[in-house]
């Protein structure tokens, strides 16, 4: 926001005024001693990097015990109309969607409607033509699916999709079913981690078949509304929320491509269809970080079960990354963070919580820079912000 502490609280009050009652998830809180200076350094880094990388707009927020104690916004939600990012701006969260899908699966498990060790083919016999050179398809379980260790390919489409007339993603379940005879398990299930988007589509289908509801309807009734995420939705925007939806942009070789205010993720909705403003995401984060509430959504023991290591991913210096059940687990110098990233159609985001201190950071930008080699500068930008938060802000809350 600004370098003035007084101005910070004035703007937070403005956020609450814009977003309505405190039930939307934005709660004013005085930060602890020692917070202001490190947070100002993070704000400065955030703004500098977004400006340097020509990001159109973005937001960063820090939450402790369900209360927003640091927040900053930058740039435009729509460059053509010069509509600025504000507290009501609705972003697309991409693969962060997967964590909510995982919660829904755990709800069904807790109601004894499935087991995590059920063979996925018991729920989706359409997978029977899949080729598994490592054994029986019944060896692949829901647990493997949730931990990205089932051996399915990474992309939803098994081919390039580079023609302008190709759809962004499959739009119907039968399209994926038609690909099953051409789908091969790539490694022994459970033996290692390999991120898979189509695998999470399978979870969405399981939710639909067991509940009898469309995926979006089930999620709205059993996850979003109980969390009071009333301005959150999947895919195309409700008419009354479209004015608040952020546009998104690809940047390549200095040229911007505008993606438009809306897009439909089709049958891939369970792995990347979520849209929400920051206030609603605070409600979600508050549920994750509060050990004494939210049992009507999911038992705390079940949530914490999702945060147990299922399969290792890698080690980079002092940072060790593993996969739980729908959540990534980052461990650094004895400290554990739980979170997920999201990248789709020009949006890039992350959230990380430190359960022991009930703290969390949420980051999102509406511009994704594509590089010819060396990985995306946008991913490097977000990793730099994440690492700065791990170094300068999260430690302030440890006793």
Fold and architecture overview:
It is a single chain. By secondary structure, the protein is an alpha+beta fold. The protein folds into two domains: 280 residues, DD-peptidase/beta-lactamase superfamily (Beta-lactamase), CATH 3.40.710.10; 110 residues, Methane Monooxygenase Hydroxylase, Chain G, domain 1, CATH 1.20.58. The chain contains twelve helices and 15 strands. A nine-stranded antiparallel sheet has the order 3-2-1-14-13-12-11-10-9, with helices on both faces. The protein has a three-stranded antiparallel sheet with strand order 4-8-5. It has a three-stranded mixed sheet with strand order 7-6-15. Strand 9 and strand 10 form a beta hairpin. Helix 2 packs antiparallel against helix 12, helix 3 packs across helix 7 and helix 3 packs across helix 8. The protein is globular. 44% of the residues are buried. The N terminus is likely disordered.
Quick structural summary:
This protein is α+β, with helices and mostly antiparallel strands and 399 residues long.
The percent range for helix content is 25-40%
What's the domain count? 2
Distance between the termini: 28 Å
Radius of gyration: 20 Å
Count of DSSP E strands?
15
What is the N-to-C order of secondary-structure elements (H for helix, E for strand)?
HHEEEEHHHHHHEEEHEHHEEEEEEEH
The residue ranges in which pLDDT falls below 50 over 5 or more consecutive positions are 1-28
Named CATH architecture of the largest domain: 3-Layer(aba) Sandwich
* Shape annotation: globular
CATH class of the largest domain: Alpha Beta
At CATH level 3, the topology of the largest domain is Beta-lactamase
Strand content: 15-25%
The description of the largest β-sheet is: 9 strands, antiparallel
The average pLDDT value, as a whole number, equals 91
Class from helix and strand fractions = alpha+beta
How would you name the CATH homologous superfamily of the largest domain? DD-peptidase/beta-lactamase superfamily
Strand order of the largest sheet: 3-2-1-14-13-12-11-10-9
